[in-house]
Amino acid sequence: MKSRHLRAQAASFCFILPALTVLALLLLYPVVTSIYYSFTSKHLIKTGYEFVFLQNYIAVLTDKEFWTSFLTNIKWTVTSLFFQILVGFFAALALERIGKGKSFFRTVLIIPWAFPSIVIALSWKWILNGVSGYLPNILVKLGICDAIPQFLSSSALAFPVLVMINVWFGAPLIMVNVLSALQTVPRDQYEAAQVDGASPLQSFLHITLPHIRIVMGLLIVLRTIWIFNSFDMIYLITGGGPAGLTQTVPIYAYNVGWGLKMLGRSSAVTVLLLIFLLLVCALYFRILDKWEKEA
Amino acid sequence: MGRKKLLRRGWFGSTVSYVYLSILAVIAAFPLVWILLSSVKSKSELAGDPTIFFPSHITFENFRIVFEQLNFGRNVGNSILVAGSTTLVAIAISALGAYGVVRFFPRFGKKLTRVLVTTYMFPPILLAVPYSIIMGKFGMMNSRIGLVVVYMSFSVPYAIWLLVGFFQTVPIDIEEAARIDGANKVQVFYKVVLPIVAPGIVAVAIYTFINAWNEFLYSLILINSSEKATVAVALKSLEGQEVLDWGVMMAASAVVVIPSVIFFMLIQKKIAGGLAAGAVK
């Protein structure tokens, strides 16, 4: 009897074994080796390397460029996330409200989500091109700008424009998830509130928000991580320029690892990045836990 | 008196909603429209007044250059191969895993969201360093199989997350009835559960394919010959040319982005609820 039970257990375990293997080999193991290499002088091309203890961390933490990148990264994440949520949330509310054309708008609005990062980069670079881009030229033609604005190479515009492109890309995901969260709000509560004479704003604040806040919370956690880690978009659009103004930590790590070819030091940068994200997420999860208990 | 009626109270709100959505729709669709229009404009037209919206005549010269001179078809083939293999392997692993968690390890399932969020936290740029070292060690640098292996790192967690929601909708009674009829766990999975969740699995498979098709960083780091390059990296290399030909770049972009957009539109309704469902549990 006991051996049958054990065999059943083993069969159940076989279902999740491949997935666990992937997680262990492709996520856990690389993170451990990254931590290991962060204490060595590992080079991209040279074969030999030695243990250098904290030297990489000291080099990174005393590098002014690292801290500038870190601040840029926080600015990038906070502004992108704020505007993505603002645009996406109101788009979801607007979609909930309209009757005809809901499915049309929904389908058109998610287009950016499907864009590969390289196509995001090329298409926006072409639209904003400082010589023959559509948008800069139309702004001049309409008399809004005197000279052709250099959206991606001017030090005043590059960062905000990059954030706007990120909002264009990320708002649809927020919209779609808020929209499906809105469907989970029980409708009888709205009816009860209306009978009690609640205004739409009151029912929004006291019924809608409390119901969707856990989904929103998780969404914010995921988006924070994703935007903080995002490499492609910045690398492909500005490459961190002009003059390092849009350089975030992932770009800095790439430049150290593949530009300077110092993989050990690059690992130290990414380990610091991971530690920071772990701290931020621990904080988020404490808040989410509290909400879940209240719910 | 339903929620819909309540939310739709007043014409003012609806009008504002329509105006807001229309503005967003124009912004959302503009890059795609501009890619398509630019890709069929002639060289002289692209060099002319950039504010002229529609092409005066349509030419497919740019597409001809993309496929005949740049041999982009080869890169499309690479991407189909890599993204297709990634999808097949990832879905097999994830379907088993998601079902296993839902049915046999429900207590672990409650923590699954956290585990998957944690995997999401590892910066791709952090993983890129050990991947390039490990692939070098096993002689899998510049190998499409190596790329498929690396793509599991994001495909499997994503797919499990989405699939868990679909497997949870399968009523356990049906499975128990099959068990009483003498089917074992594996038979129940193949003959009873899979057919029920098949539409969900197809949607997740398409999503996995799009993500692999769109991927850039690992492909950039692990593949270093243009023969084996995926579409994303091949597109990037067009930008490195001395004379930038935007017509050609937009034609190649169109080839890459159109399948993504079409497939995504087909599955978006099925995928969208996934995150919310995962969070509500």
Feature tags:
heterodimer, A: 295 residues, mainly alpha, MetI-like fold, B: 281 residues, 2 domains
Question: How would you describe this structure to a colleague?
Answer:
The complex is a heterodimer of chains A (295) and B (281). Chain A contains twelve helices and no strands. Chain A has 295 residues and is mostly helical. In chain A, α9 (200-229) runs antiparallel to α12 (263-294) and α11 (249-259) packs antiparallel against α12. The longest helix of chain A has 36 residues, at 2-37. The radius of gyration of chain A is 24 Å and the shape is globular. The two termini of chain A are 43 Å apart. The mean pLDDT of chain A is 90. Chain B is mainly alpha-helical and 281 residues long. Chain B folds into two domains: 3-62, no CATH class; 72-280, MetI-like (MetI-like fold). Chain B is built from 13 helices and no strands. In chain B, α5 packs parallel to α8 and α10 (185-214) runs antiparallel to α13. Chain B is globular.
A few lines on this structure:
The complex is a heterodimer of chains A (295) and B (281). By secondary structure, chain A is mainly alpha-helical.
C-alpha end-to-end distance of chain B:
29 Å
Count of helix runs of chain A: 12
What does the largest sheet of chain B look like? none
What level of helicity do the residues of chain B show? Answer: over 70%
Question: Overall pLDDT of chain B, averaged?
Answer: 87
CATH names the topology of chain A as MetI-like fold
Gap from first CA to last CA of chain A: 43 Å
Give the tally of β-strands of chain B: 0
- Helix and strand pattern of chain A: HHHHHHHHHHHH
List the helices and strands and how they pair.
The complex is a heterodimer of chains A (295) and B (281).
Chain A: H1 2-37, H2 55-61, H3 64-97, H4 102-109, H5 117-127, H6 134-141, H7 158-182, H8 187-195, H9 200-229, H10 232-237, H11 249-259, H12 263-294
Chain B: H1 3-7, H2 11-39, H3 43-47, H4 61-69, H5 72-104, H6 106-121, H7 124-137, H8 144-167, H9 172-180, H10 185-214, H11 217-222, H12 231-238, H13 246-280
